[in-house]
Structure formats: structure tokens, C-alpha cells
């Protein structure tokens, strides 16, 4: 039998004791970045704050300005290629990766030897918590190129001691053949690509609920934290589903990760310190279980350390104990919103993830959808296109289907109106009409 | 300044001393595979040979039967998924990869932890010999999926301590932008893809001969050993070109690798023992500098060890000293033929690589070509399609071009006839007419 924890002392430490360690690491990082990294010295000088002003964790939240993605992009424009926040006196840079943005220049991630080893250790710890064991054969179905998600998964699996099959994304038919032939037991992919694999496997006539897989870890998109998506994946594949990941800048990005209890993501905050703050003021904390923006801090990175990085992700946090015995806080509902992606439709604030959540709760909907926004005269016009789930309507006689889909459409429209306050035209589409993403899905088409 | 060798004692050891070590390793491997691996026990029992029959290196060549690719494929068909030659009492299997064949099921490579570490060490040693140093930034432009060539390059670069940029193949425009932006100094790719990158970079209007690259290591195809291809790559990019690689089954596949003297590939035969044998009888050695088939033996692999693997590659070997000081033998002309790919045209034996070599020596030819074979009546009809090199004809007035290309066609036809004894119809094509390969190029179309 395997041990229960990767690092028992670390993972089950009393909260107060851990917070003391975190505070010490924060102080050390603040001195490092202020002394060695021009980007941070400028930022803190402009804010009139010094490392020694931070005496408590509360000081850290209240006094230290956040770093936004746009600031990193600007720094890299001025200081090719890694910006003026790379760090000094580093162990050798062993890896370069980049943001997976398809438009324009990516932002680049440079990672030192010491940091890469640290990433491997943290990823192994978190994947162990999620349930991977050395006896597993892990099917890694994300694209191996710029996207650091793929590479971070791989070194976590390697460090943990499981067998890695890094096949990448795409060539789905062949990929499924290999999955079955090799008997791979764990899948790591984006939720979107996993759903595409599921549909393709059904086309191949496979009994997907009895695949060799026993669990999946889903990264790159928050989908696996949305109950209906989680259910579609879990029931479709007959597997246990773990939601995981923060954001590329924060590598080791596994520090948000579900344990085997699947009670929302634990926050491994002694590697990446994680705060939930006011959406309007990143220096104002919010109480437990209040929705806010996630702000992350690298406690151990020497290369491109992020200190209070504003992720733009929305969540809420609890310190309620988890049955797994880990004393880390949790995000019980995962990451359920993108503050930067918020749509304003006829004056109302609407998150695409909220539309997704509502839609998937309507019995009969499939997993793929799109939001299309247009101007009609002066008014916003919002349409949701959603596929129906062929499995759900399997036993309905063909001549009754139109009537049933009509009911589905009406139910979805009512649910969306109630939840968002916005009237959406709902179009119900045939299964597999919408294009499938092999990495991150694009679901909002704003033509206004 | 960096040291000259990765492992001086090992690389510069007197030949006799090394051969004693090799013999000891061979004996140990023979006992291991005979005792623990059914595939080899069956093979050797059928051949009536026992490990103790091998007392000298000559015995090894004369008595031990070769393993062919078809035998591995058959073994995997019968014993899913890794065949009955995986090995026993292994350290954990950490990686699964596969042959890159696009038709049918790949053969699978399973590699143990201990072997993967050994692969990293050998790859670092050979890449060091080729000239990579820790200060280099390495652009890895091969597809990261089944193909073990990509992953073997990566762990070699990592172990050596250079910076890895594993971007993969494809999206060539973007890839070139990143290469220039990051200032990458070393390229690892197939020769075909490198030539495609070169053309694309010229289209982008870049001064390719003054790129940030200073050297390239070329794997997956023997192209970089063909003088004209080597020249096209070297002059086009303004880089030093190193030919490298054995074959996937033999991972660590870097054990054929050029040193900085670029005098043909050294054979790092204390990791993979390499023999040149008669094309007709794999138990018959050929003298130095006589052409024959390459047969490879893993001296340290525990997982899927290959003992006398018949590669199907043709080459010749010398023990003449090299100015680099390494005492390994060399393949001074690289790998210049595929015995299994040999074409029979009107009864004559023709190697596609020989056609390539001849063709590229005709001034004015570009780097891409195809051989098309058809039946006309009862006779074989052979056509070579070759693009002309636009740079070569840059200063020719447009009205003179047809005449010049006519001359090119005739010159190529004569050269091919003289070298192969076969009459080829030569068609000269516009530049960039033929499809470019992003991994291995397909150049023979046999419609007979």
C-alpha cells in the first residue's frame, strides 16, 4: 500500500504554524524582489512601500500592490525577451515556455534549474493528493509546445514515479486506440478536449464508462469545477474527476488541486500563497466564503517570481476541515468566474461560466455551447447556441423529438433569464455541430 | 571556458581498453537477456547458442543472431503491449513512446527509470561532443508526441545544462519569430523540417545566414550526412551542422554523432556497440571502410534491450584517429543508405539516398525532390521531380530562365544515369512545388 500523503508533516500542519512559515517566506521574497528585481523595486517605490513595512499577513494584503498581466506584457516589450522581472543570481535557466495566446506575441516564462526542481516537487505532492500513484499509467493529452501546462503535468508525473505517456493533443481517433491498447489509467487534459475524446470514443463504438481510465485531472480551463461538466466527464468515462490549476504565470500551477475527497480545490498555500480579495480593491481582503478575486504569490520561485499576481479568476475560500486530513484552505466551488471576461449585456454583468453552469443544469443539454452577442439597432442581442445530448433523447420516438427539443429550448431560456437577468435567445443544435477545441474552448463570440 | 569533453577518461580511452569493457558489458547483457527475457531465450535456443559461447567480440558477431524490426512487431502483437522482450526486475517504467509510423499500430517503447537516466547521460555526452554548451539556448523543433527523438533530445539538453525551448514542429512562421526573438543558438530538428524553416524564413525576408543560430543537430533522417544537404543547411543558416542518431529502438539514439571536427559521426560504442556487417550475412563482419549493414547492441539498457538489432541502415566504419581526440570509431560518410528501402528499377539496385546525393550535386537544384516509379507496359519507368534553386538563378534574366532550366534537366539526367545505371526522366519544377514534411520526408512514390 502507498502512503496517504506525499509529505505528511507539511500537508497536515496546523494552520497557525503554516501561516508563520508562509509569513517568513513572504518576507524573504519581498526583500529578494526589492533588492534584485527592477520591476518590483519600481513598483514598490511608486507605491511608497518597503519590504520591512510587511510585519503580518494582513500587512501583505493591505500594503503590497498587485501585478497585472498587462504589466508583465509591457515589461517584456521594453526588456526583451523576459522583462525586467527575471531575477538575479539565478541557477541556470533550464526552460523557456510561453503563454498560449494565439494572437500577437506570447509572454515568455523563463524557469531556473532550482525552480524547475521545486515545480516537480510541488506538482508531485498535488497530483498525489488528487490520487495518482506510481502504479498508474498517465495519458497526457495536452499539446507539448509553448503551453507550460503540459510540461508541468509531465514533470509532476515523473517526480511522483508513475509511468508517463505524453502523447499530446490531436489525432483523437488514434489517441483513443492507444489509450485502450496501453490500458492507461489516468487522463490529464483540458475539460474541453476530454469531452471531445468522449464523443469520439462513442463514435468508435467504445463502452466509455468501462474504459481503462480510473481518474482524470483537468487543467487549463475551469470546466472540471462546474458540477454539470464534472458529471458529464465523470459519468461518461466512469472516472473520478479532479479539478486542478491556477495559471501559467504561477507555475507550480497545481497549487489549486482537489484531493481524493473531491470537495473543491485545496489551496497548497505554502508553495503559492493565495488570497481572495475584493473585486474592486485588491488590497482589501474578503471574509471566508465571500466571492472575490484570486491573488497569488510565489513563495519559492527565484526566476520571474510573482508577488501578488492578480489572476482575474473569481472564487471563494473556506478553512473548514476536509476529511482528507490536509489543513490547507479550500476553494469549495472551484474557480467559477473570470473577472476579466465579464460580459456586459444590456447593462447586466454576465459571466460566461455562469451561463455554462445554468445551461448544463437543464436536463437534455449537451456539453458544448456558444454565446453570440450582436447589436440590433441600439440594443444588445444575446443568443445561446447549445447542442442537445443524444444519449438523453435516446428512447424518444423520432416524431416526438422536435416537441421535446422545443421544451428544452424554453426551459433553458427561462433558467438563463432567472439566473442572469438577461433574456437569451436559445437555439438548440444537433449534437456535434459546434467546433471542438483541442485545447482551450472559445465560447464567446462578441460581434457588437 | 568549458571543459573539452563531457567525460574525458571515457571518451579518450585507448581502443583496446575500451573493447575489453565492451566485451564485459556484452557478456553481462547476454546472460541477462537469456535468463530473464523469453524473446531472447527462444531466439538463442532456436539458434543453438548460449551466452557462454561468446568469449570474444568476434564470437559475438559470428554466433549471435540479429533481431529484426518485424520480430519486435510480431512479439508485440502476441504479447500486448510491450512484447515478450520488456525485461524483468526492472526499475519502474517511467516513459512510454512509440514508433512514428503513420500506418497501423506503432511499436511501443517502454523505458525504465534507470535506463532513462542512462539515456540522459549518454545524450548529454554526445551533444557535448557535437558542440552544445550550457550557455546555449536550444530550439527543439520536432513533434513532441510518440516520436522518442524529441524527448531524447530534450533530456540530453537538460542533462547537459543548456536552456531548452521545446516548441515542437509546425506553425513555422510563428516558430521563426520566436527563434529570432529569443535569440536561440542551437536548432535540433529533422533535416527536412530545417530546410522548410529556411525557405519560410526567406519568405519572411529574414537574413537567414545571420540568424541567432550558431549550430544545428539533425536527427530522424540521414539528410545532414549528405554533403549537398549539409551544405544547403549550413550555408543557408550560417551554422555548423552536426549529423546525429541511430534509430528509435536503440535509444540512447545519439550514439552516432558528429564531434566539432565534423568528420562524420563518431560511434559511441561503449553505450551502444555498433558493428558493420555483410549486407547478406549479419554474422559476417566486413573490413574497415567496407560498406555494410549497421547492427546495434544496447550495453546498458535493462528495459527492452536490443542485442544485435539489424537497423537496415548502410554505412562504413573507420578507426582512423580524429583531431578531436576521441578514440571512438567513426562513420566518415554517415549513414548513406537504407538497405530495406533499396529500389529495384529495371533490375538495378538504387538507393533513394544515392539519387538525392547525385541530384544535389548538380548546380542549380533545390533541396526537395521525389522519385516516382510507374509501369509502362512491362517496363519500369522512373521519374525524378526536382525543384530548382531560386537563389542560384537570381541574376538570370527571365527570358533566359527556360533555357537554363533545360540545361539543368539534362545535366541531372546524365549524372543520375552515370551514378545509378538507370535512366531517369528528370522534371524540373518551380521552387516550393513539392509538399514539405514537418517530420520525415516521403520521397519515393512507387506506383508499380
Please tell me about this protein's structure.
Two copies of one chain form a homodimer. Chain A is built from twelve helices and 20 strands. By secondary structure, chain A is α/β, with parallel strands linked by helices. In chain A, the strands form six sheets. Chain A has a five-stranded parallel β-sheet, with helices on both faces. Chain A has a four-stranded antiparallel β-sheet with strand order 10-11-12-14. A four-stranded mixed β-sheet of chain A has the order 19-18-17-20. In chain A, α2 (15-36) packs across α3 (38-47) and α11 (352-360) packs across α12. Chain A is globular and about 75 Å long. The termini of chain A are far apart. In chain A, 48% of the residues are buried. The mean pLDDT of chain A is 93. At the A-B interface, β1, β4 and α8 of A face β1, β4 and α8 of B.
Kindly list the characteristics that best describe this protein:
22% strand, alpha/beta, five-stranded parallel beta sheet, 2 domains, homodimer, 448 residues, Rossmann fold, four-stranded antiparallel beta sheet, 20 strands
Amino acid at each position: 500500500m502507498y502512503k496517504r500523503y506525499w509529505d505528511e508533516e507539511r500537508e497536515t500542519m496546523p494552520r497557525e504554524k503554516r501561516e508563520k512559515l508562509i509569513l517568513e517566506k513572504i518576507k524573504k521574497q519581498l526583500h529578494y524582489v526589492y533588492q534584485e528585481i527592477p520591476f518590483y523595486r519600481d513598483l514598490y517605490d511608486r507605491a511608497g512601500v518597503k519590504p520591512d513595512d510587511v510585519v503580518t499577513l494582513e500587512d501583505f494584503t493591505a500594503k503590497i500592490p498587485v501585478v497585472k498581466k498587462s504589466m508583465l506584457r509591457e515589461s517584456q516589450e521594453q526588456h526583451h525577451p523576459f522583462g525586467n522581472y527575471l531575477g538575479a543570481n539565478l541557477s541556470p535557466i533550464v526552460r523557456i515556455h510561453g503563454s498560449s495566446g494565439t494572437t500577437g506575441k506570447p509572454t515568455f516564462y523563463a524557469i531556473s534549474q532550482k525552480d524547475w526542481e521545486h515545480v516537480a516537487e510541488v506538482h508531485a505532492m498535488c497530483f498525489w493528493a488528487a490520487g495518482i500513484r506510481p502504479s498508474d499509467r498517465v495519458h497526457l493529452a495536452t499539446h507539448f509546445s509553448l503551453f507550460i501546462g503540459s510540461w508541468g503535468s509531465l514533470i509532476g508525473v515523473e517526480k511522483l514515479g508513475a509511468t508517463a505517456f505524453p502523447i499530446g493533443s490531436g489525432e483523437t481517433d488514434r489517441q483513443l486506440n492507444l489509450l485502450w491498447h496501453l490500458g492507461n489509467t489516468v487522463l490529464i487534459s483540458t475539460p474541453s478536449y476530454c469531452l471531445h475524446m468522449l464523443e469520439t470514443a462513442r463514435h468508435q463504438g467504445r463502452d466509455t464508462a468501462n474504459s481503462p481510465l480510473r481518474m482524470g485531472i483537468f487543467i487549463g480551463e475551469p470546466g472540471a469545477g462546474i458540477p454539470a461538466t464534472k458529471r458529464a466527464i465523470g459519468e461518461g468515462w466512469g472516472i473520478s474527476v479532479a479539478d486542478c490549476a491556477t495559471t501559467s504565470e504561477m507555475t507550480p500551477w497545481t497549487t489549486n488541486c482537489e484531493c481524493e475527497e473531491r470537495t473543491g480545490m485545496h489551496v497548497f498555500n505554502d508553495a503559492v500563497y493565495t488570497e481572495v480579495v475584493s473585486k474592486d480593491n485588491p488590497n482589501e481582503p474578503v471574509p471566508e466564503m465571500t466571492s472575490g478575486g484570486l491573488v497569488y504569490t510565489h513563495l519559492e520561485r527565484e526566476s520571474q517570481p510573482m508577488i501578488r499576481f492578480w489572476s482575474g479568476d473569481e472564487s471563494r475560500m473556506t478553512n473548514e476541515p476536509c476529511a482528507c486530513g490536509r489543513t490547507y484552505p479550500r476553494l469549495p466551488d472551484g474557480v467559477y468566474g473570470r473577472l476579466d471576461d465579464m460580459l456586459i449585456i444590456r447593462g447586466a454583468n454576465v459571466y460566461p461560466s455562469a451561463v455554462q453552469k445554468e445551461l448544463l443544469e437543464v436536463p437534455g443539454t449537451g456539453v458544448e455551447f456558444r454565446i453570440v452577442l450582436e447589436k440590433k439597432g441600439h440594443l444588445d442581442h444575446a443568443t445561446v447556441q447549445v447542442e442537445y445530448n443524444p444519449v438523453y433523447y435516446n428512447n424518444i420516438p423520432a416524431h416526438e423529438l422536435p416537441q421535446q427539443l422545443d421544451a428544452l429550448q424554453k426551459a433553458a431560456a427561462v433558467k438563463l433569464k432567472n439566473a442572469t437577468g438577461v433574456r437569451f435567445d436559445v437555439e438548440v443544435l444537433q449534437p456535434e455541430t459546434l467546433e471542438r477545441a483541442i485545447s482551450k474552448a472559445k465560447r464567446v463570440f462578441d460581434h457588437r
